[in-house]
Amino acid sequence: MASVILGILLLLIPLPLSAEAQTPGSLTLGSSLTANDRNSSWLSLSGEFAFGFREMGRGAHLLAIWFEKIEDKTIVWSANGDNLAPEGSTVQLTADGRLVLVDPKGSELWSPLPTVSGAAYAAMLDTGNFVLTSQNNVNLWGTFSQPTDTILPTQQLDLGTKVRARYSEVNYSAGRFHLILQDDGNLVFYATPTKPVLSDAYWASKTRGTGFRLIFNQSGQVYLTAMNGRVLTLVTSGTNPTSGFYQRAILEYDGVFRQYVRPKTANSSSGWAMGWSMVSSPVPSNICMRITQQTGGGACGFNSYCTLGDDQIQRPRCRCPPGYTLLDLTNEMNGCRQDFAPQSCDGSKPETDQFALHDMLNTDWPLSDYELSEPQTEDWCRQACLADCFCAVAIFRDRNCWKKRIPLSNGRMDSSVGGKALIKVRINNSTSNSTGNGNKNSTLIIIGSVLLSSSVFVNLLSLLISYLVYKSFGSRDYKLSRLVQINQATGTQTFTYQELQKATDGFKEELGRGAYGTVYKGVLGSVDSNFVAVKVLTTRTGESEKEFEREVSAIGQTNHKNLVQLLGFCNEGQHRLLVYEFMSNGSLADFLFGSSRPSWYKRVKIACGVAWGLSYLHDDCTRHKIHCDIKPQNILLDGTLAAKISDFGLAKLLMANQTRTTTGVRGARGYLAPEWFRNMPISSKVDVYSFGILLLELICCRKNYEPEAETEAQVVLVDWVYDCYHDGNIIVLVESNEEALSDMRRVRRFVMTALWCIQEEPALRPTMKKITQMLEGAVEVSVPPDPRSFISAI
Question: Quick one: 152 and 263 in the same domain?
Fold first, then answer.
């Protein structure tokens, strides 16, 4: 046994540190690189590694080290992933021997910590280590001592050194996973970015008190040693090919530590293969089952579940259960949200018949349960969850029934889990009246049977017929008086269904459609130019009347140049129709995202018009209103390109002294404020958030999410705009628009206003009245904070 250990030790001996002190190709004091050239870099002596700038997006640069001779230029170290450098930034070895990255204005963006000065020269070594060296060839600092997510052969990690996974595959900002060789000698993997506790660890070497150094040797092993050099733990096993191959070990964005090898052959198409895929598993072998946090979402985010992929890497994939969708379409690890209104806890409206349970085998969300019942049957478990408004998921396994509530955490799907998850989902077009109607029908049958057996049936039948006739006339009179009341209150005209059918030529020309109805073009009277838009509301049992009256009341009582005018309505039988003024230039979505885009000054006019319209709805109406669905599709343009807000089908009507209301998630994804996802009371600030997204789209003349964007940094508009603003590079947002380039003062004011609108905390968002003043320049716009912090909070 001793001889085997000795053989391993001889195999694992690392290179001495003195091998790093190579001077050929060294960089003298005053050497610098500027972030304006994609090939701006310093090469190692062999040319295998490069140190310099990598472009992460238009005008955004990462100071990094990468494999220079392979096609994909794989990055192995980076300095400023959380603070990308704008175009024109410089990294310099100063006259006093400091390495510093500064922006074009001279502000420092990054430098080594702790501060290192007095270097005589710097060098990019063939090991992949960039070093600052003293006059007597002593390394004062090197990137090997401050790794990011990757370690390379000959690299050693001492006590207290941390390796941090990046945020995503293409985003080099810090993610939440990290490994650290703790001061007590234990190598631990954590899923919590700050102040980790041992209970949050998902892998540990169990070498507390003995561990001293983590080494990646030239033969391809990553192992932990004691202070005397004795091997304690092989983190990765097996011997990998070394000659003619590149190697790297990385804590990836999914939290798994993997080792890769790749042939050095130029333009090799083989890519990076897992170094020990035929010998042992990555660390941990199944992260889905290893992470069970007391706080936090687990391997994936809240309300999602983790399952291993089928590829060689077996990368964990984060999925949403039925009835849930991703919070962030650009990052599946950020969790999911319910796609339906949760069950009411109003005892008078149990809604048990409006929900169904979807089965998911071998799935669980540990630590989210609040009640356990045993022993029970599966049917009992199903009924218990359906009857409990707090129950979002029930787990049935081994005759045990666990109830779980939102948010669900530590989700996993694995054959070792066993049992099944019962996911509660709202049934489409369900009503709470179906059971009640059945009971009423049964009651009528019983009453009828009794009456038929009675000798006084004929007399009672006559009385019943008289009552029904009376009720019919009373109902008709009530409905007529109701129509008169609506007309008097709103000043609108009443139409018959036949009139509107004729006006639209049998609903022939469709202008658009949405969740609450379809809009058709029509002509009133004999004048061909008297165009109208007729909206046919979707008939929904138990909802159509409510939706109809809401729109008539909300729109009919408004009077503002930036709101679409309601001309009339039809309330005949099952037919619910609204008649609006016709908007000849269609929706802002078609105009803004189409081939013929409006000029800058027209976009300014549209933005101000929408702001004025919302300010009127929020503050100047007798009954204050929240629109709840502000998006380009609901902004219509008339013949002069004046913007008018349409579609109040989702409006929440508030009394004069009421500022907040509670409702299920409504509106369009991408424009929804964070509070929708938290099931919080909503206020007019949800419209402010939606307007902020709309304003950014108007400024940049693009959609808020473009997966086919030129660079990854530009996919999510909010992220791109804030990065450009933070880096003092707003000009790139409108670089193809000469009108906007000549009006940069207003562009900057609009960008800052939009960033205030989309703050996570509703209280931080200004009112729409204040926003109109900000847009017009009547008040000064202060510096907005980063609005993107809500991603980790919801």
Answer: yes
